[in-house]
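Repro:
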Amino acid sequence: MTKAEVAAMLKGQVPELAGVPPAQLDWLAEQGTLETYADGVKNFSRGEEIVALTVVLQGGLSIFMPQAGGVKHLGVFEKGEITGLLPYSRMKAAVGDAYAAGDTVLLRLPREKFPEMIASQPELTTALVHVMMDRIRDFTRQQQQDDKIMALGKLSAGLAHELNNPSAAVVRNAHELKRHFSMGPERLKAVIKICVSDEVVDHVNGLVLFKARHGNAHGLSMMARSEREDALADWLERNGLDHSAEAAATFADFDFIEEDLESLRSLLRPADIPPVIQWMNQVLITERLVNEIQEASRRINTLVSSIKSYTHMDQAPVKERVDIHAGIQTTLTLLNHKIKHNQIQLKLEFEEGLPAANIFVGPMNQVWTNLIDNAIDAMEGRTGNILEIRTQRSRESILVYIIDNGPGIPADIQDKIFEPFFTTKPVGKGTGMGLEVVRQIITQHAGRLEMKSEPGRTEFSICFPIG
């Protein structure tokens, strides 16, 4: 392929260079070198230094990047596309591995030629700078989307984890309640045969209702609880009740003692004691199962409300005056599984009477999520973990501090952590856009984001106006 043919291909096949004077395209063809690759041959590797501008004249370059234990196909640079190093670009290393897609021909201009190009080929330089700006916008948009998807994945995993226990409890207790009620008809026969006065009925009802509402043996030690169950089981067995151990456990749950049962024995015929006790046991079991279903359902409702509040899905994207503590608490609820998994002690110091702030609620919840999640990740695999969150008013602004006692951020990278795409997390765990998103949101609120870090303490501080 001659230089003239290369220049003609640049003019006719590369849309971004269509307006560049032919003489400047001739210069690019003359100063560049041609490289050919057979289909499937590796062109460069992830992390390899990028040292040249590349124009695909034939075939293509297929880019792959490791992600989450696998490989993600980022796309193909096809015939007529420009890639590689561009004028004024800060790109240093390849983000993925590249393989030839078909028999491929590339034109490469080494970076050593860039100063001459900038000085003598202005239209060519301008066209390439426009390519760089478009690439930055596209790449940033994609990385932000990846970051949102990753954040959604974390929240989904957390929500699924948190929902698992209460939903399982609802199913389990509903099944147990159905089984429990299936035994009712047989026991009802024995209860109907009992003939007692209204005073006795009122006494039994009063005792059961009082214990159902107020009985609570949770304050007992394990030994005291075991001793009480044994005593109740002995009493029940002496008075003709089958399965006395199971019933004793139920009565112990509701803080029954032997004296409570003795008060019944003095009012009933010996033959009536077992059916009355069985009826009481059935009422208490029903009460316990319904309470557990109610509590599990409340927990599910709280989690669903937290997600709704977090995403603010039912609100328009406008500023609202809200209590920022609610957003922080919601975020902690959604990340609770990670907090528990890493055995993190929460230390919350929220200033009382902090005024409501005029903020974009959804975006600010992203701020809390990114900073708190980063703090949790920093403490992963360590002991004695403490996450501290403090809020306070400073004149007409609100200050929020998020502090962890992890290993700290190395001094040599502290000035890079807010740069787009910079991340210290393993491949698949971070996109490098989390802190950039935080910075953008805080800037959108006319606020300030600062970081201080040393071994054993990393502090992010956010300051934004109340109004």
